[in-house]
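Dear Dr. H.,

I hope your travels went smoothly. While you were away I took the liberty of generating a structure for the chain from your last submission, since the lab meeting agenda had it listed for discussion. I wanted you to have the full record in hand beforehand rather than looking at slides cold. The sequence, exactly as received, is reproduced here:
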Amino acid sequence: MTNLDVLKSEQGTRLAFLDKPDSTALAETLVAFANTEGGTIIFGLKEDGEPAAAKLESADVEKVLKEADSACNPPVVVGPWEQIESEKGPLFIVRVPRSIELHAMSDGRVLIRSGSKNRPLGGQEILKLASAKSTGDFESEIVPGATLEDFSNKIITEYLSKRAERTKRPYNGKVPDLLKEIGATDAEGRATVSGVLLFSEYPQHWLPQSSVVFAKFVGKTPRGENGLAGYTRREELTGPLPRLIENAWNLIWSEMAVSAVVKGLEREETFEYPQFAVREAIVNAICHRDYRLKGRRIEIRMYSDRLEVISPGGLPGFITVENIVDEHFSRNPRIVNGLFQWGYIEELGLGIDRMMEVMQQAGHKPPYFDARPYSFAVTLYNERERQKPPEWARNTNHRQARALQYIRDHGSITNREYRTLCQGVSAETLRLDLADMVEQGILLKVGSKKGTYYILK
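The corresponding predicted structure, in token form, is as follows:
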């Protein structure tokens, strides 16, 4: 993200504003960013993004960085700070990379970045984060035998095109430099795990665990008749991660049931599962699986009543089923960023929220998350929850039902409006309709004589 992009953004999981040289606040933010996804700190802005009242000098920034450094255990390594001139005045920018170490404050507090705040972790959360840190940074490890020549120029060109669409700027530098910058190669130009997974035509040659297995079963269990396998279709998908996402989606799409209803004069198709929820489940599994686990592959199981996407490796860091909507921590940040630039991730950290939202909007149960030590599964159910009709619907005739719908749309109804609604029906019959609903306790009569109107009780 360029300095211009940063200045247009609000505080969040990867951006913090500090309006004054406060070493404690700075140290807390350094630790929080280093323990999570990394981030950018801007000196000279208030929380709302407006310029600070007091003007900062470079000496102030230099001093507070040294003081904050001594308050972090171990110290957080940051890049050189930059001074920029902007419409909001002189600002100072410090970029904090994600760290493979567990960092704490000198008083023992371990913090992570949660939304736009720094949150201290509890005991069990600290142990989980420490465990995640101690496993190392597998996606940045060198892949023995793989070289830059194993990367596909076609796939790299596609990535650069998609990246330019997202950032609104084409990349004009040297491709090898960019590959180093995004972690696809190391400083010596050697291919890393993330580089092979993203840019080689067949990463399964070096990482066979990176394929995806799809199976569609006849019923609600994986067993068929006489103890035989119950699947009607089984496919193994291979290729770089972007191709895995597309091929998995196309496969599910081809097997997904589609129904149709006619509304007015238009035919409207209804899919077995919301498209966003399916793609999000696939993308999450491919982004966040533990690629160190060599004996397991991502599994997609399609049953008659549900779709399961099972990803090898438990939830990373301090993430739990309980906080999965609110917190964000990635096992593979370079892969996540690569697929984000590719356009497979709409906005970092918000996919689970929207998955739950679209399932609810479609009338489905919310997604079910099953977190185990060495796997994480997302289940989408295809059964729609039928809305129960209100109690009054059972005790009204078709004219009264129209009146009630009119009240729900307009807030109230008068005798005259009811007569207009039900032309050809005698005024006495309509009066008795309204009186009956008042007696049943459905409507409340307000006013008298010509000023009478009815509302829902």
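Two observations you may find useful: The chain has a mean pLDDT of 88. Residues 153-167 form the longest helix (15 residues).

With kind regards,
E. W.
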